[in-house]
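[Q] Does anyone have a clean structure-token version of this?
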Amino acid sequence: MMKSLSPLFVVCLLLCGLAVQADRVDDYIKAQMQKQHIPGLSLAVVRDGKVLKVKGYGFANLEWSVPVATDTLFQSGSVGKQFTATAVMMLVEEGKIGLSDPISRYLPDTPPAWKGITIRHLLTHTSGVGDLYTILDLRQDGTEEELVKKAESVPVAFAPGERWAYSNTGYVLLGIIIHKVTGQFYGDFLKERIFTPLEMKTARNINEEDIIAHRAAGYRLVRGVLKNQEWVAPMLNTTADGSLYLTCLDMAKWDAALYSEKLLKKSSLEQMWTPVQLNNGKTAPYGFGWALGSVNGHRLIEHSGAWQGFLSHIARYDQDRLTVIVFVNTANAGPTAIAHTVAGMMMPGLRPSVPHPREAEKP
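[A] Here you go.
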């Protein structure tokens, strides 16, 4: 008759399994960094709100040979949109913003072409507002009012709700609306209402003027040679479409909070993770600041980001309570595929059968 295994032995087996997985992950990450010419990478694997693995690889700064650490700050790119969407939903819960409100309620003198555009349309990329970045001089500074005027000058692409098209402009406008409703710059609102309560101690808006410890440098690959990121005007590094500094440790705390009601009611979170319905009754795989999908029947809530020599991705398999977070400091890499592959290493049922298409991001 076979004896039952002792609880201590079972725990040892599990720990050994995790150690083997961790070694496989390290080998995979290092191979991908070499293959994709990634200077530095930060990775976190979170299960049930607790960090299973957090590690830095390579260099945060090539000129000084500074290695990536667990507290290295990376630019968020469009991963920052989920924080903007959460801020909006906080104001919705407080009755200060309505999802069906026309944006003209908050942005006076909007053009006739914007008639019918609501807060919900901006959140879900179904507003049809034109791409502000097609006309912006990224080296020219400006005010929020000037950004709105420039956005108004871009022809709309379609009627509100007619179809889905990724729109950084919509999230730029949401940040300005948050400012108008609360009297606070959206970054200050995030700090007060999200970052501080969750003890995300290093999360903050990009600011090139301040002295910021452990800030990574961004790079791009030019004809096979790494170059520094290109300079953009300071104002364009403060917009709500994705202008944050984050660490994997910050994001692990954020992930844990999303399983609770520390920030929003569960009904609000589920609304954010529900595919948007278009005018024709069809849906698009996007909610409020989150891309939505599934892998082998497992729900996947995720988002990627790209900006100024940085790429990022967070993949949340919330029903499995597993999250993988990846930051890299190069504009020429694939953090989405890396996050998905690592998830499959940790839980074989999450191994993707085909590569996930990379979504549009902040240019």
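[Q] Thanks! Anything notable?
[A] Residues 296 and 328 are 27 Å apart (CA to CA).
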